[in-house]
Amino acid sequence: MRDKKNPTLRTRHPLLPPAARSTAAHLLTAAAAQGRFALPCCTQCGRFAWPMPEACPECLAEVALKDAPNEARLISATKAEVPADSYFRERAPWWVGLVQMGCGPQALVHLHPAAQVGDALDMTLMLDRAGQAVLHAGPIGGDMTTDPQWQHMTADPRGRRILITDARHIAALPLAIALAGAGAAAIFAGVPEMWKPLPQREALLAVPGLVLVPLDVTSDRSVADLAHDIGGKVEILINTADLPRPGGLTAPTAQADARAAMETVAFGLMRLARSFGPPMTARGADGPLGAVAWVNVLSVFSRAHPPALAGYGAAHAAGLALCHALRADLATGGLRLMTVLTGPTEDDWFQTFDPPKVSGKALAAAIVAGLQRGLEEVSVGDLAKDLLQRLDENPKAVERALASGRI
Amino acid sequence: MALPRGYDGVVLAVPVTVPYVRHSTRSAQWWVGRALAALAQASGISHHEFDGLSVASFSLAPDTSIGLTQHFGLSPRFIDFLPLGGVAGVVGLRRAARAVQAGDCDVVACVAADTNAPQSFRQSLEQFSRFSQDAVYPYGAGGPNVSFALIAQAFMAATGLERSDIARLAVAQRENALRNPDALMKKPLSVDEYMNARAIAPPIHLFDCVMPCAGAEAFLVMREAAALAQGLPFVRLTAAIERHNGFPTDPVMLRGGWARDVTDLWAMAGVGPDAVDLVQTYDDYPFVSAMQFADLGFCAPAALPEFLRGHDFTVMGDLPHNTSGGQLSVGQAGCAGGHLGLVEALRQLTATAGARQVKGARRALVSGFGMITYDRGLGSGAVVLEAA
User: Fold this and answer.
1) Phi, psi of B156 (to 5 degrees)
2) What is the pLDDT of residues B62-98, one digit of tens each?
3) A131: chain B residues, CB-CB within 8 Å
4) What ipTM is given for this predicted complex?
5) Which of A102, A135, A141, A293 could make an SS bond with A336 (beta carbons 3.0 to 4.6 A apart)?
6) Quick check: is A21 in a domain?
């Protein structure tokens, strides 16, 4: 267990790093959200540029974001002992470096304190606590997690108390095991309708630090009751609540199934947001282990909707849409909202779907890795990644493929 | 390339400083007004007769120089607006001198003014430039301290400069400032105090940093005949250079744009660095002054340690430098920091510098440096002024 907090001390109010960016710079936000290292690159001469320009300084052609090599060399380094901005001042000293990127330009970076001038560095494009893209650099092959600045920008489960909202989800047990392995201080696993069989009860209870708690996201009272009990303790909330019920638009139970799915996936999320959102947001700066992230596990069919999953896709689309509002609310406390879009999972509800399907273990690993890297958008499984890429490239082709029963 | 034409027949006159204060409840417009009033009073020329207005400021928003014409009752036929930081003085002077020389106007009031409230320095940092907003301010590097620390570290490593060498500039300037009643810094500064000062962003420590303040600097540019007719002491402009983003491919700033144009500067002036009686550099960190000494031809970069140890930079010394105390000891009134050296040189060369007068001062070098919008200072300029 972790140390008790001193109740006589003020809980720090969350401050955020400067969030203003140019419109063009938000191209970097998208890459950082997914953990890609991409930089502005000239569409004509191929030179990389930094900071984000509106035209290539070499040939004045348009620039676009392009995946880039992430190695750099440290030109000079300093630590800001007295930063002008309040966020950095209360975290001073803050290490800053000037690096020569292997792909050409120089950049100011958040610097790992172990880096020495002349060192070869690995750069990461990541989201800071304001949710904006920034560059971090540290020694090649070094452990970035030892850098306090890295810790500020990620959502590491280590030492934190985590709520998994539905212990019956296929990923719940492997997720609990992975979180415990990653150093979680406590894991609350929500069980709806506790009286029903929970085949993995013993295995769950064997996970160090795990307790089962009653939680039915379709019940206002259940969600509020649990929030009263543990809302002030949860530092990472992982919402796994789901109700997969295949069926087309004209199936006899279509409306009832869709309504039930909405109740869990969309309205359930709203209930959780109402009861857990404010206490978590208020604890965004509650020491080094304050509240840090919220994860919504959703189906990739929230983005592309097969006719055979009409109501289910709609419920997940609604859930995904609500994420944007929740992300904005959580952002005031510096919390990250991570959406995890998974392909069909290896459970009975997706029995008729062709492989490859996503195992609970793979889903759990992706969630933990996403938290450790501070990501905002994670997709899991080859099918989900493929579908999202095709959707980016040619959305109507995806719609037609789904209409003809292909995924 | 051919040298630019000279500035024959154009002079600077009427050095004006509106004494600085740390914080002001007044607007930048108020400070411009005080400066214009002082110019009119000292010159005996009504401000209605100023037919040129050149204004350098960061804090005039939403105004620019055009709104100020109605605000202060001027009807100029030449206006200029220079939110260019420490290079604005040299840039404004070059433009004003050419306008007067070509006959586009007769008398240009060159004014730099900025106000300063307790929160305004930090607020101005947030919106200093597009590149800074996207790629500097989010890194805790808000304010120039971190950016200059990164440059200073590389520059000191490349030149062998030690903090103890750089201390000589800061300490000499404070000694000069003690002779300047308008300087905000009133206490002596020792080398020990400089060396033991609080770290801000190593190698930048407290006494490497300027104090932001409110204030104004101003002078007039006119034809020599006009100055003579008005009975005003004046100085001549004999050489000027200006360059922006001079070395775009340098990975880190180890030299400024002066290094590109220094040959032109001395060729225009018809003398070399050894012929100047005093030097006013842009000193928003004394190591930047050291960089200017090298780039403006006083010594090779690698010889800087020896150069700094070998000279006395006080007003009584062999190479008087930043004789008012410079921004480090007088204060940095925003954009006025680039005009401070020009106005001070004008005083020195017209023998009106009072207790800090450099004896027999005939020729001065004044340099400007401005705008670190990302990783390097972009603007560089320098002028040579001669007593009449």
Assistant:
1) -65, -40
2) 999 999 999 999 999 999 999 999 999 999 999 999 9
3) none
4) 0.91
5) A293
6) no
